[in-house]
Amino acid sequence: MILVYSGAMIxxxxxxxxxxxxxIPWAFLLKNKLHLSANGVASFVLLSSIPWYxxxxxxxxxxxxxPFGLGDRGYFIFFGALASAILGLFAFAPVSVAMLFAAxxxxxxxxxxxxxxxxxxxxxxxxxxxxxxxxSAVWNIAGTAALVAGLAAGxxxxxxxxxxxxxxxxxxxxxxxxxxxxxxxxxxxxxxKAVFANLHRARAENRHLVADMMRLARHRPIYPALIILLLxxxxxATQTVLQYYLSNTLHTSDAQWGAYNAISSLSFLPAYxxxxxxxxxxxxxxxxxxxxxxxxxxxxxxxxxxxxxxxxLTAVLIGLxxxxxxxxxxDLLIRSCPKxxxxxxxxxxxxxxxxxxxxxxxxxxxxxxxHGGFVACVAATTIVYALILPVLLLIPERLIASADxxxxxx
Length: 410
What we know:
Layout: H1 2-15, H2 23-33, H3 38-48, H4 50-53, H5 55-64, H6 72-90, H7 97-128, H8 132-161, H9 166-187, H10 193-196, H11 209-217, H12 222-233, H13 240-249, H14 254-266, H15 268-278, H16 284-295, H17 308-336, H18 342-370, H19 373-386, H20 388-392, H21 397-400
Helix pairs in contact: 1-7, 1-8, 1-9, 2-8, 2-9, 3-18, 5-7, 5-18, 6-7, 6-9, 7-8, 7-18, 8-14, 8-15, 8-17, 12-17, 12-18, 14-17, 15-17, 16-17, 18-19
């Protein structure tokens, strides 16, 4: 039941996340209707993601504040309803870059609180029940399934919205997102006994914020895990660069860009399932090394794309190459969490994810437009991925010496 509950929550949260259903429609709305350049779109994403850079704050709030005495469920209920209300109001505001920026910031803050609640809850479940590997697999599989559905639908939706005015397109996107946020609030009422009956959460009244932050800073295992995630998500060759390269150079449509993202995400699923199968059978150390070696050349196949059909075939290979290491890095992060600060560390990792992804994206647009084009972006991404190998040597041996289901020495 733990894995079923986890999968259901992740499906809904990932579907409405900033990289889910509305990611492609918003990008093309900014590009085609508000006429922003590639660098302009990347800059918008960079600035509108500011709350994510401080995600650790949201995680710390989750670890210390218990809304309505409902724990993480209280976050789903309250902030799901709040995000829905914010999006519903902005649906009827005049469309401009400034309005979209404000809506993204405000609804994003509410979403991050829900996201922090899930991350803290999921990490606690993985550590407490010694199932970090299985939970990592389910987390990634369910999240990817939601993203696949969201990206595929988003690409088709973006094509349909091309025939509408900017106001009508934005209103459709806002109302659709508001409905899904409301669903998260409803799911907060769900309390399966198998998940919550024996769940132990540190009591905030017996703890001190400053002392806990110092304990987190002194917890050595978090640093290699965070650096690895930073490097893995710093990818100049993807996101805006790839969108513009495929659209302007290979002349793919909005729907084909959506299909590429959906297929590449879908192709991660067999690798995630493979990790879930291997994690109880092999130490995490083995999976980390082999997964990283396979993942380093992940974006190189993009250099051989010369047609729309080639784009879709390459998407399959990209997912297969990157899946095992992605799940292994997530398993490592869960194992690295200090007790009682699961939400804080998990959200710190998402700060690193946002910073790495958005700054890598911004740098990639500069490389693409002024310093070597798409080839330079692919080369830079591959070099950054290779830097993960020496970081693996810094991970404490005790943390990765065991397979899933065995006690991990903290």
